[in-house]
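pipeline/complex-builder :: batch 7 item 3
reading input block
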Amino acid sequence: MIDGSIRLAIDAMGGDDGPAMVLPGLAVALVRCPTLTFELFGNREVVGPILERHPELAARARLHHTDVAVPMDAKPSQALRMGRRVSSMWRALECVKSGRAEAMVSAGNTGALMAMARFCLRGMEGVDRPALAAIWPTVRGESIVLDVGASIGVETQNLVTNAILGAAMARAVFGIESPKVGLLNIGVEEVKGLEEVREAGQVLRDANLPTMRYEGFVEGDDIGRGVVDVVVTEGFSGNIALKTAEGTARQLAEYLRMAIGRTLRARIGYLLAKPAFARLRDKMDPRKINGAVFLGLNGLVIKSHGGTDELGFASAVELAHDMVRNELQRRIAADVAVLTETKELADAG
Amino acid sequence: MIDGSIRLAIDAMGGDDGPAMVLPGLAVALVRCPTLTFELFGNREVVGPILERHPELAARARLHHTDVAVPMDAKPSQALRMGRRVSSMWRALECVKSGRAEAMVSAGNTGALMAMARFCLRGMEGVDRPALAAIWPTVRGESIVLDVGASIGVETQNLVTNAILGAAMARAVFGIESPKVGLLNIGVEEVKGLEEVREAGQVLRDANLPTMRYEGFVEGDDIGRGVVDVVVTEGFSGNIALKTAEGTARQLAEYLRMAIGRTLRARIGYLLAKPAFARLRDKMDPRKINGAVFLGLNGLVIKSHGGTDELGFASAVELAHDMVRNELQRRIAADVAVLTETKELADAG
């Protein structure tokens, strides 16, 4: 960090629209976060000409040529085989590993990014399995939900770690001193298979960590209500919750469209209420909250949605900026250390 | 069944509003399904006077007095201790067990109903674990999602059985000859922990059952899109998907309310578009699709939402009516037998 600037490594080839979306996105982010500088990784034949059209960006970016771009539909194993060491995705991750950048942003293939990030950056000390955290819009603002797909299967230790990772992110991104944390569970009690969730709750309650307020169990419908700042679960149900919420939002938008389109009177009403609807659409706009974050690795990795546009990519870049500025990695390491200490004290006692 | 009539056993004490909601609900259902007759279980001091106010219902119902009503917040173990053999819930289940009624409907406590139904009715031959199936509104109509909370943990055989149960229900309720079936999965490939889901997919593909079209994996956002008629998953992620969708719908309704309430112009627009909004609310109305079904037991049990009103309860009763009329239980038994046969043939070959 020179003179307070924050340097990000960018996979310029990622996303359905690739550099044609990524570079304009960076230009937008730069207006809002003028201290950013970028290390760009991508094919110079494609990226170079676009970069030239954005002189303010070009002045704050360095382009590193890469021959290989990981296809959006490559399987993680394929991606590793073809892209390790040579792809724009890998080189951007390596840039974080070596300390030349403070976070990496990619709109590339999620599975490939997850595999490469794990392989290149490895887990932080005290974190067995990294988590993918999503920022979820709620009626009260925003919450963090994790894990949304990085690791599958309920394990007590994993849930506890996710609570720590999520709370640290809430502190860094939302600026809440002691975020409220809930464990995602189902309302049906005394059903088999939830021992790990209950155990994780017990551990969190007993640990009584200074970095969070553990609030007990929450259910699926509590997420959108914003009952807690951090919702903790394992990757399978977390991913399904996230996708289901996205699908429901799209479904209701479709109902709304159908309801409005049906009669002339409704269309006139719509025209009058248009500014209100614009605000509604704004709330429902997935681009506004674009970026899932890999937590628990030796380096910050932000995954932007593959199908996003430049505004969405800019949001992901701004999220990276905020997390670096608020020292998320240092916070996570400190919080994990507190838990380890607590456990050691408990074991010794 | 006398002269084509369908007899249902009703837990008259279930639901937040109890008999004051249940009985008017039955009266509504009776208008739409006039061949219904009811065996009512509940406290005669409370239920009797309400029944007198609905003479058409009283003419088609028989009231059996019960002293005990399972509280809405009782744990399943408590409910079994206090309510076994004596509660309105248990007695209504028993009425189905003995063959005096063809299905049971309750708006009582889900966990208690699940525990009692299992205990009283036991699983059908060939079904290890019963499932709770929900009817899910989609942009194309409705789909069945199961399991939404009856049994937790991914097991291959369990997923295969759920596919058969769900397909039989789709045939009975939607009247589709060969319903499309999908397994709920997450898009991230080659992540640990999904072996059982993949295995279940292989079994369904190989079995090539005449009662369904297996369509492969679906993701959370495919549910509301109505990509398949039956979405199969295990109870933890299914329950979370269901609750998350409900929460998201409520959240967006709240956004809509806020967007409309803000300016006079928007309110005038809203007034003009009001009939369109009424249709929209109708689509989003959880009462219209009210009733989850326990499948795989020796008897049909329909769970109405605890917080529902009489219209919602009437929907659950009509669902019971349709399932009995379309011989759901017989279909399930036949479909399970086909799978068992297929397996035996495969094992012998």
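note: The two ends of chain B are 43 Å apart (CA to CA).
queue -> next item
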